[in-house]
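Intended use. Records such as the DUF547 domain-containing protein entry shown here are meant for training and evaluating sequence-to-structure methods. They are not intended to support clinical decisions.
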Amino acid sequence: MKYFLNIVIRVMIISVFSSSAMAAPKADLWPYWNVSNPNNPQSIDHSAWQGILDRNLSVQGDNHLFGYGSISDQDKKSLHQYIQQLTQLDPRQYNKKQQFAYWVNLYNALTVQVVLDNYPTKSITKIGGLFSFGPWGQDIATINGKTITLNDIEHRILRPIWRDPRIHYSVNCASLGCPNLATQAFTAQNTEALLAQAEREFILSDKGMKITNGKLQLSSIYDWFVVDFGGQSAMLDYLAKFKPEIKRIITKPNFSQPSYEYDWRLNGS
């Protein structure tokens, strides 16, 4: 009976938090990490992560799928070593461009690692304790003696420091509804190009935005993080730059609010 009740409670929690009305964490700066050294010319090596992506990430239609079930033991070891390499650095000693690539790649590598640690699973949302909706709030790494979660990286470091809504296209939550895990590791040199590419690909895909019978369906990202896009009106204007037909829909007198969808199934091949 107790086991049955636990399952019921978990289902209720997931039902609440997986809806399009899910409250996303606010961008809440962690000041400790808002330090950089603009005069440091050194770069951080992300070649190990690039190798893992090359060997395990496949492009199928609108989706980039990771081979969680077929990854080699050597690549699992390489992933562990890469994460260890990054967490032993002090990112505050690097310039801002190096830092951005550092945090994005670390987030994505840690996400792959947590899925592998709990594989097989149908969804990352099933990882965590009874009262958890996914692993995002769990302690996952230690840097400079500071324990860090995935939520910390996204909502307390990346979003408040860089204030670029395209961050949402760079960090991957191991789900089909999420903007794709990039086939290239982020670097200080390619960040702008990768962000622009990811932005365009996601918005123009059905999982980013879809128009059916004159009705607009958007990714729940544009609901959860609408504040990052300047509010709903600004967000719709922004999307219309990529799909002009949106403008015709939202200016109609009988325009109804967009619906929001998100696919939490694992992005596995």
